[in-house]
Each structure stands twice: as C-alpha cells, then as structure tokens.
Amino acid sequence: MMNVNRLALAGSKHLRPSQYRVMAQRFNSTDAQKLTAAEAAARPVVKSGLRFRTKAFITLTLIGAGVAGVVKHSFDDEKFRELLEDNIPHYAHSLDKLEQLRDNEDVEKVIAGATLVGGKIVDLSKTGYRTASDLINGTTTPAPEKPAASASSSAAQLAKKVQELEQPKPAVAASRAEFVPSETPAPAFLPGAAPGKSASHVEKPKVAEKVSKKVEEVKEEVKEKVAEIKENIQEKIAEKKEEAPAPPKKLIKIAPIESEEPVMSSLNATLAQLVHILNENGIPEQGHEVFEKASEELKHLSERVEALKVEGEAQAATVMAELTEKYKRIVDEKEEHHEGHISQLKRELADAFEQEKKDAIERELKIQQEILREEQKQELIKYAMDMQRRWVREVKVRVENERGGRLARLDQINLRLKTLERQGVDNADFLDQSSRTHQLWCGVKALEKAYEAGERRPFDRELARLKRLAETEKDAEVLKVVLAAVPESVAAHGVDSVPELMDRFEYVADKVRQASLVPENGGVLAHGMSVVLSKLMFKKHGLVPGNDVEAILARTEYYLVENDLEQAVRELNQLKGWGKRLAKDWIVAARRRVEVGQAIDVINTHANLVSLTLA
Amino acid sequence: MSATNNTKAAAIPSEEILSRKWDECLSNVIVKSGIGLSVGIVASALVFKKRSWPISVSTGLGLGYALSQCERNFNPTLVPVAKYQDKK
Questions:
Q1: ipTM of the assembly?
Q2: Subunit comment for this entry (chain B) (predicted)?
Q3: Which chain A residue's Cα is nearest to B76?
C-alpha cells in the first residue's frame, strides 16, 4: 500500500497542488502533509538506486551467468547449438575450443590433481584441528582408521581366512589316504577261508594215506603169505628134493613102457623126465635101485593093466550080450504095449479132433451169424437214416416251395414298401426344401423391402431370420458367408437410401468446394481464403472429364442421378486432401449401401438357384 | 481439451469437420478476445490509470492467442520451430 501510494504520488507530479493535496488526502498518506512538489524540490535530492559500479557488476554477473547457461545448454541441445551457430558469428569456433578444453586430458589431470591436493589439504587440516584440540584440551584422540588401511587389513583378514580354508584340505586328503589302506585288510578273511580248504585238503590225504596204508598192509600180508607159500612150496620142493633119493652116480636107465593108454604114456614121459633130472642132479645108489624097482613095477603095472583090459573086455562083452537080449525082450513088449496105446490115443485124438472141429464150426457159425446180424442192423439203420433224410429233404423242399412262393411275394411287398418309403421321404424332403425356399424368398423380399425403403431402416431382424434359414439349409455355404459379411452394426442401424444419400451428397459437395482451395498444411488464413474464393468458382455438371475437384463432384452427381452408387463412390474416392477427409463419411455410408445391395443380389441368386434345382 | 476433442471427433460426420473447426475458431476468438478485453479494462481501471492502451493490448493478446489456437486447430502439424526445420 505504501508503494502504491508512493507511486501514485510520484506519478502525480504534473498535478496542481490542490489536486495533489486531494490525491494525497484520498490515499491517506502520512507523507501527504509533509511532501509537496516544492518542498520536495527544496530537499536535497537523494539518488535512489545503486551506484554505477554495483549496477555494472550486477549486469556483468547476470550476463556471465546467461552466457554460461547458453553455452551449457548448447552443449546439451543440438538444435539450440545449431540455431546459435547459425545466427551468432564465431560461436561455433568458440564452442569447439571449449569442447577441446573439456575433453582435454591435461585438464582432467589437472582437475584430478587439484582434487587430490584438495583432499590432502582437508586431511591435513583435520589432523591439525585434532592436534590443536588435543593440545588445548589435554586429551588424546586416536587417529581414525584410514579407509585404505582398513581395506588392507581386511585384505589380510581375507588372506588369513583363505589360508584357514585351505588347511582342512590336507586333513581331508590324509583321511582319504587312510581310507585306502583300510581296504586292504578287508580281504583278510579270505585266508581264513583258505585254511578251511587246506584242512580239507589235509584230511583227504590222510584218508588216502590210511587207505593206501591199509592196501599196503594187505599187499604186504599177501606178499608175506605168498612168500610163505612160496617158501612152503620151496621148502616142500626142497623137501621133496631132499626126500627124493639122491640119484646114483651111474645114470639110471629106464626102459620106456609102451602102452596104448595115454596115462601110461604120460607116466612114462614124466618118469623119463624125472630120470633125466635125477641124472643131472645125481642120486645115490639107493635111488637108482629104487628107480629100477619102480620101472619094473611100472612094467608089471602095465602088463597088469593090459590083462585087466582084456578081461574086462570079455566080461563086458558077455554082459553086453545078456543085457541086449533082455533089453530086446523088454523093448518088444513095450512096443506092443505102446502100439495098442498109440492106436487108442489115435482114436481118442481123432474124436477129440472132430469134436473140436464141430465146436469150432459152431463157433464160427455163431460168429458169422452175429456178424451178419450186425450188418443187417447197420444196413437197417442206414436205411432208416436215409429214409429220414429223404423225408426231411422232401419236407424242406416242400416248405421252400411254399416259402418261395410266399417269400417272393414278401420280397416284392418289401420292395414296394421300400420304394414307398423312399418316395415318402423324398416327398417330405421336397416339401421341406420347397418350404425353406419359400421362406428364403420371403426373407429376401423382406430384406429387399427394408433396403429399398425411402429412408434408412434397420434390417437386423430380417438378417437374423435369413441366417437361421441358412443354417438349416444344406449347400448354403455361400449364403452363410455372405450373411456373415454383413456386420451387425450396419444391420442394426440400417442403410441410407438413395435420396438420403443424394441429399447428403449435396451438402458434402458444398463443403468440399469450400475446402478445395486449401493448400497443404494451411492454417486459418488459408482456410478462410479458400472459403471466400471458392464462392467465386463455377459449378460443373454432367460427365465432365478432368481430375480437379469440380469435375469429380460433377461426375459423382451424374452417377448418383443415374443410380449407379458404385461408380459414384469410386469417383468421390479420387478426391485428395481436405476434400477426401470431408467426404469420408459419405463414402462409407454409400459403400455400406452398395455392399448390402450386393449381398442381397447374391442371396437373390442363391434363392433362384435353389428354387430351380428344386423343380 | 484433447480428450474432449477425441469424443467430439467420434460423433462428427466427416463433412462437418471444417465447420466444427470454424465454430471452434470463432468461439475461441470471441471468448479469448472477450477475456482479453475484460482483463484489459480491469487492468486499465485498476493499474494503468484509465489509459486506453492496456485494453487494446489485452484484447490483441487475446485475439492473437485465439488465432494461434485456430492455426493449430486447422493445421495440427504446426510446430513453433517449424521454419528452422524447413530450412534444414
């Protein structure tokens, strides 16, 4: 308030004093009584504001800040930098130099060195402060741990830890090593098994030894016995030898005894041998005598034997004759007896034989009878079966004949029934199809009516009905596709009619003309000029050639009048720029109408086709 | 403003775009120049000791602001530094 007052007062120097007093009173200022222009002029003028030096200093500082800010911003913003470079002379050069300075490594080193020095100074100052405070206070404060030293100590700790970690490894290795030899005593139990085996081995030879020992003992016994026997024999032989008289010094001669008997001859031979042996060995006289005696006795013996032989032969002959006679008699008797016996036996045998024959014949007869009976039976059975079969066959044939007759009829009836069924089904199908075709036609007509109405009318119900019809119908793929191609929104809103479109087109054409002279990216003024100048342009009508806005509009109008919406749309689509933007909605609406019209055409043809194929 | 613009664009038939723009322009002009006028009157009455220039200045400012808004409306591609870009 005070400033306002002062300003007002300062601004009111041109007023008359009375007016001035009024103003002052109005503003209720305390200075009003004191200050008037004259009084103010009488006072010494106090220069308001700052001195020139300060002003210059402030200005320069502001300018310097501004320049620094501009430079900094030009480093950051390329466009800004380019703008400045374009407009300020030598700006690019100075900026390049500054960049060099900035990127210069020497400068960086200097800066780093400066920071280091600064850090050191700070540390020194800190220590100085501490020592000073200690001296003053008489206390001792420990030097703070330098982060570098602490880092090194922590590194040492880490190293120690690493070493500790490494130490358990050899312990592990040692245990590992111990593990391995523990495995070797494991097979220690195997030799334990071996003693068992060796024990068995030992036992076996022991048994074998025993056996062999026994065998040997037996052998020895046998040997001993044999030896004994041999000895006995030898002793006996020796005894015999000793018993045998010593042969005389002179050789014994013994006349060989000839006889027919082999015993005698062998005896003779042995005697001769004995004599020979004795002769060789030498026997005393006694023996010789004995031997001669023996030979004489032998001779006697042989004579005796011969005599005996003769006697014996004679005796034997007589006895033989007697015996033969006796036996002859006996034999004759026996023969007679036997003959009678034999004839009796023969008769008996013959009877028996005959009896047996009869029996056999009877048996054979019986057997044959039985066989014949069996055969008869078999034949009868066969015949019976045959008869039965024939009977069955006859029956079958009869039945089949009957059946054939009726069957054929049944088949016929069945066939007819089937044809009837088929016909019925076909009929039903036909009726179905025709009813559906009718419905389709009705639906299409309804849709057409909605389409051709004088105003926009929604046709979603008709479309839904057609879709339902299409689902039930076979071979309706095209229909389904076409119906699906019509979007729901279009069906719900309906489609513009041609008069509506024409009306709208007039409006659109007007607007398009207004916007026709706007250049690319024109602003308000351009648009305004276009609006004004377009009113001075001539309107064209009819099928005019050309690619400008008026020609296009004229052609579109012509096609619209001709009811050729498709062409109209195509024409209007050729607009460019603002005209196109303005005409877009109209084109969309017209296109929708065209599409629905095409869909209806397709449905129409489909219905035509269906009704044709039906018939 | 942009949100309301979008919803407006959904409802406008395309042939009315320019008309809408003109409408907006006109309304802008009226509103902003009116505001400028009123601010100018108030300023001149209160601050400038009933001089005439604040009123015209203010109205002009309002008109200019409306004009720039119109320009942007008719030509959305317009960007303040466009001329330099064109030269590039």
A1: 0.81
A2: Component of the mitochondrial contact site and cristae organizing system (MICOS) complex.
A3: A521
